[in-house]
UniProtKB/TrEMBL annotation:
It comes from Candidatus Kaiserbacteria bacterium RIFOXYD1_FULL_47_14. This is Uncharacterized protein. It comes from the Bacteria.
Amino acid sequence: MWAGLTCPNKKAKNLVQCGYMLRSIRIEIQAGFTGINDIKQHKVLEAKRVFRDNGTRTLAIYFDLCNWQVAFIKLNEIEDDDMNWITRTNLDDGLVWNIDQNFFFWNLTQSSLKFKQLKSIVF
């Protein structure tokens, strides 16, 4: 048994031999303190480049500390023409992806998410 996963093949030495597909994922952690929740364009472009070059996905975990909520965003899946791209004049590069309220799956005042819930968000 590995991390709660069982394998019918008793001779298996790892999860791959059991038929589990292992995936790499990059985690980007961000926090906001003002109630304005967005991700700078260069973070999304980097995530897309990494995915294109080696297939590694990037998950942003964004903590909105003003409202005690957490968003999970697959950065490499954000479309270039997504309607959430906006310009913020107070930033150097200006273009940011505004995090829609629908991406906030967890409130920090509640119990933590179960692994099954996270798995459905991430993969």
